[in-house]
Every structure is written in structure tokens, then in C-alpha cells.
# Entry
Amino acid sequence: MTSQLTRRHLLMGAALTATAVVAFAREPRETMRRLKPGELESMIPTQIGQWSFETRSGLVLPPDDPLVKSLYSDVLTRVYVSDDRPPVMLLIAYSNTQNGMLQLHRPEVCYPAGGYSLTETKTKSLNLGPGIQIPARFFSAESPSRTEQVMYWTRIGSESPTSWIEQRTAVIRANLNEIIPDGILVRVSTVLPDYGSAEPVLREFASAMIQELQPNGRKLLITG
# Structure
């Protein structure tokens, strides 16, 4: 009996040791840190298509709590105006570390926290230029004071997830390749009463923005 217990303990110990070795071997070692604080500001042009930068205020922002402050390493907020098109609000939130504890907050969380009720979110293909298509999310947000039409997309590492589950899966896949991925949320919105008239405006602005960017900025926003 004693020898059987000893052999059993040895086998269990060997199994645990093997598990620990595999876990260590798969532990992420490379972090995709792309931006220094404030660098995002210089990458996004102040003139985008028919729109020009006017102000930084008036946007719905992520909740102001310690977790959010630790999550994002850089946040850009701008309102762009045009002579013949509706104003467009742009928010870009960048995180240099996406892991099991820190993940991008999707706008479906931020808007209800600001007192908005939301329509069902729909995923559609967004054409950002020749050969550039990504999945984007669309919804309407209504509060007692205004109705906002929202389009956004996210990038985690080299992927463009459209849900919390896909977001977590993208992080796991990167971790299995020994990488701690970065992440970015790009949100464009406008204050119009119906989505039918807003969607072409948001698509036009997003496409113009991508075309105006330098290659490093384009890579930051839409590819890994």
C-alpha cells in the first residue's frame, strides 16, 4: 500500500510539474505597446474630409472610475464640424495592455451609465477604403435631452472583435502566442433623430479619417 501511494504521489507530482512547465512556456512575454502618452493626439488629423476640429467637449465618456483610468493609457475626444454636414463626435480610447482583468469598455456600457436608453446593436460591414473592410457596431442612444446615433469598432491585437466574448477570445489567442495585446476603441457619433440619415454621415467620416491617416495611424486603428 505504501509503495502504491508513493507511486501515485510521484505521478501526481509529475503531472503538476508538467502543467506548470506548459503554463510557464505559454505565459505572455511580449507586450504590444504602440503609443506613448499624448502620441495619439498628433496622429489624428484636425481636418477630416469635409469636417474640421472644433472642440473637445460634449461627448459621452467612459465612466470616471479608477478601473477605467487604469484601463486606458490614452483617450482622444473631438467634435468635428462641417458647413454642409452634421457635426461628428470622435472618441478614440487606447489601452496598451489587454488581459483577463483589463479590457476595453464598449459603448453599450458607457451610454446607459450616462442616462441613455439604447436600441438593439447591429453589426455591419464597414468599408474604409479599397480593400479595407471591418465589422462595426451601430445603435441609437436616446436621453431626455438628445438622440445620438453611434457607430464604433474595436481592435484587440490583430483582430476586430464585435462582442465581449470575441474580445476575450482575441486576448486568449494572443496570449497563447505569448503576446499581451493592445486594444483600441474607435467611436464616431452624431446628434440626429433617426439612424437612416446618420449612417451615411458616419460611414463617410470614418472612411475619410482612415484615408487621411499616415500608415502608422491606420495600422493603429484598424489592424494589428
Notes: Residues 1-5, 9-26 have pLDDT under 50 and may be disordered. The longest strand covers residues 132-142.
